[in-house]
Specification:
- The chain is an alpha+beta fold and 633 residues long.
- The protein has 20 helices and 26 strands.
- The strands form six sheets. It has a seven-stranded mixed beta sheet with strand order 8-7-6-9-12-11-13, sandwiched between helices.
Length: 633
């Protein structure tokens, strides 16, 4: 996957041959003017169908990848999320064949300052990247960008990470993972990888995107910008933030498992290579001028010092050598006679988790967890990042943490963290209804009667629910894939969005049993409109927000059963258009005005399945009732 192309344009030396709606492209390296063989030239040719040609035609250097995706989504009425992946995959192939190249659109300023992080393609880092990027979104002045270096050694980038990166329009580069290429048998456990080397790789990658006189702000992935960016305090020259771990003498003596206080004297390490310049203890938050980051000797020494510290730490008997990369930047700068400032601004220092307040504009580092020092990342909070090492924190139900953060005993920066998490969850995982479907939906909704009761969650009668659940379990073998539906889609390319079993006799009985409850809730005499289901949503499926047909005036959705890994709420807008997310558990039902209130399941399902059934009624005597028979539709 090639993320480097932000504004793709057709390579001017490309040859093209049009055949009806298709086009054949031959790359510059494969033209007859080259000395390559005909076999080689054939390998550099590609045939594009009509959709591929549509992408190619928009590669004029003025449109971003997101612009191209949006234009095609509107033209072909295709889900933007799905189309974006196809566009990027196509551009990757075109880039590999040298058929497209990068271009800066007219009027765009060159990137001068970059906030950079390096990460691996794992759940732990995907959600951290989302929170990091969310915290900086909309806060950077012109010429400033964010950059994510994905250290994957050329392996395919996961759809989950692509989704995060696409949502935030960040510069993204695929980079080397030096730790996995060259594992050091000196880690906390024998054969351990030292993943922190990815921070050095991120600095090297960012150097290709920052101007010489610009700045690269290299941060840990588990950081976020607290409140707004304070440009006035941002370093204008190479600087490192002071850090108490690095200031401990010897280095490593501050790690909590190092009971003997053994470590390495960093000044003596410098002297051993002939450098007598005093060492300055900084290096967690790193601020480097573009011209310094482009110094290959400096970058190479960062790697070498990190590895040397790792080895020396093990030699002297340090159990935890994970902090080996912390001072490597300071050591490499010092050894190369590159001057740097040592910052003691509280905005850049790694804070204590017991701090009850931090300065606005801080680079807040939520590094701690109960496994480190016995307390979590925030004052009085039980939340800690390691609990979500193998799963996507943003897809878990973290509402109890959000609620706890509102307590006066908790901190404002903790509350802000969960605000960012909630925004990131919606931005990354929420599937917005395409515009053409919204327009159709608006036209239909305006024709439906308004009752004015909105929606309400309640429980189904116990005996009725037991009968419904038994019906579901006894009919498992009868479910079939549901017919295609432009509102119901899936992220799972190898599965159907849902399975369906429609038992007309059973459903008619359910309509009859529930009619009185719906009349009591709506305050209106009703007649049957339809009963649909049981529908069983499959892993990865999502349902765009919509309103139902005009006959479905008084409705309810009933959860029959589910096996979820994480919450999968019903999204519903109230009478004023305000959005709500309602968890509906087995045996629960939600009354709502189906033809008036937009509702759906816009988050991809994380779990095995979710089964529900829908019942709909029409007010007696209404225009819509006269158009519909008194039986399921």
């Amino acid at each position: 996957m090639s993320f480097q192309i932000e504004f793709p344009r057709q390579h001017p030396a490309t040859r093209r041959f049009v055949i009806d709606d298709e086009i054949v492209l031959i790359s510059p390296q494969g033209t007859p003017d080259d000395s390559t063989s005909s076999e080689s030239a054939e390998r550099r040719a590609i045939a594009l169908n009509s959709s591929g040609r549509a992408i190619w035609d928009l590669c004029d250097g003025s449109r971003s990848v997101n612009d191209i995706s949006a234009a095609l989504a509107s033209r072909f009425h295709v889900d933007l999320e799905v189309l974006s992946r196809e566009v990027r995959d196509t551009l990757t192939k075109l880039s590999d064949l040298n058929l497209v190249e990068s271009a800066e659109p007219e009027g765009e300023s060159t990137t001068s300052n970059v906030f950079a992080i390096g990460l691996e393609d794992k759940p732990y880092f995907r959600w951290q990247a989302a929170i990091f990027l969310e915290s900086l979104r909309g806060k950077l002045p012109p010429g400033w960008r964010t950059l994510v270096a994905v250290c994957n050694n050329g392996e395919p980038v996961s759809d989950e990470l692509k989704q995060v990166l696409d949502k935030y329009d960040t510069l993204t580069v695929e980079a080397s993972n030096h730790a996995r290429k060259f594992p050091l048998d000196v880690g906390t456990d024998a054969g351990a990888y030292h993943g922190a080397l990815n921070r050095v790789e991120a600095l090297a990658a960012a150097a290709r995107h920052a101007s010489d006189d610009g700045m690269i702000y290299l941060l840990d992935s588990d950081t976020f910008l607290y409140r707004d960016l304070n440009i006035a305090i941002m370093p204008k020259r190479t600087a490192l933030a002071w850090n108490w771990h690095i200031d401990h003498k010897p280095f490593f003596s501050s790690t909590h498992r190092n009971e003997s206080a053994k470590g390495v004297d960093l000044q003596k390490l410098l002297q051993a290579i002939g450098c007598k310049t005093p060492f300055q203890p900084g290096g967690v938050n790193v601020f480097v001028e573009g011209k310094v980051a482009k110094n290959q000797k400096f970058i190479g020494d960062c790697f070498r010092f990190a590895q040397a510290l790792f080895i020396l730490g093990r030699i002297v008997g340090v159990k935890d050598a994970w902090t080996a990369e912390m001072p490597c930047f300071a050591l490499a700068l010092t050894a190369n006679s590159i001057t740097f400032d040592l910052l003691r601004n509280e905005e850049f220092l790694v804070p204590s988790c017991r701090e009850q307040s931090v300065a606005a504009g801080s680079i807040y580092h939520y590094y701690s967890d109960p496994g480190d020092f016995g307390y979590g990342a925030f004052h009085n909070s039980s939340w800690h990042k390691q609990a979500y090492h193998g799963k996507d924190f943003l897809r878990t139900d973290f509402r109890h943490f959000e609620a706890a953060a509102q307590s006066k005993q908790n901190t404002d920066h903790e509350r802000y963290f969960f605000e960012l998490a909630e925004k990131a969850r919606k931005r990354v995982h929420f599937r917005k209804t395409p515009q053409y479907l919204e327009e159709m939906d608006t036209e239909r909704r305006e024709k439906a009667p308004l009752i004015g009761v909105g929606f309400r969650k309640t429980r189904l009668d116990g005996k009725l629910y037991e009968r419904l659940l038994n019906h579901f379990r006894s009919s498992i073998h009868k479910f079939k894939s549901e017919p295609a539906n432009e509102y119901l889609l899936t992220e799972n390319k190898s599965a159907y969005p849902s399975l369906l079993y429609q038992d007309e006799e059973f459903n008619l009985g359910l309509l009859n049993d529930l009619q009185e409850a719906h009349e009591a809730w709506s305050g209106l005499p009703l007649m049957y409109a339809a009963c649909y289901g049981i529908r069983v949503y499959q892993p990865g499926s999502y349902l765009y927000a919509h309103t139902d047909r005009t006959t479905h005036v008084v409705s309810s959705t009933i959860c029959v059963d589910h096996r979820l890994a994480n919450r999968w709420p019903l999204y519903i807008e109230d009478l004023e258009g305000r959005p709500h997310e309602v968890s509906v558990e087995p045996g629960e039902m939600v009354f709502f005005e189906g033809a008036r209130l937009r509702h759906g399941r816009p988050y991809p399902l994380d779990g095995e399945y979710y089964a529900n059934i829908f019942v709909h009624y029409t007010p007696v005597g209404s225009a819509s009732a006269s158009q519909h028979r008194k039986q399921p539709g």
